[in-house]
Amino acid sequence: MEKWGADTMPMYISHLFVFSMIAAVLPKDNWMIVVLVNAIGIIFCIWLFSRDWYRRIFNNVLNLIKKTVFEE
């Protein structure tokens, strides 16, 4: 379970930023555009955030934050 959680955490945390940006700039008056852009965003997030290189970068940044904040 720990390995599975470590592999999916970058996707769960990172997609929030993508969809927050989409929500900020997307016109809300046309539901077809909203659905289309969100569907493309979902596919993009799955593709990008499941890459090995992204998970390594994410985990390195997370370890750096952990060392900076929680360790002396």
Per DSSP, what share of the residues sits in E-state strands of 2 or more residues? Answer: under 5%
Structural class: mainly alpha
The stretches of 5 or more residues where confidence is low (pLDDT under 50) are: none
Q: What's the helical proportion of residues?
A: over 70%
Question: Measured on Cα atoms, how large is the radius of gyration?
Answer: 15 Å
Please tally the helical runs, counting DSSP H or I stretches of 4 or more residues. 3
Mean pLDDT over the residues: 86
Main beta sheet strand tally, sense and closure: none
Instruction: Measure the end-to-end span.
Output: 29 Å
Would you report the number of β strands? Answer: 0
N-to-C series of helices and strands: HHH
Described by the principal axes of the CA atoms, the overall outline is elongated
What does this structure look like?
The longest helix is centred in the N-terminal third of the chain and has 24 residues, at 2-25. This protein is an all-alpha fold and 72 residues long. Helices cover 86% and strands 0% of the residues. The two termini are 29 Å apart. The protein has three helices and no strands. The protein has helices at residues 2-25, 31-49, 52-70.
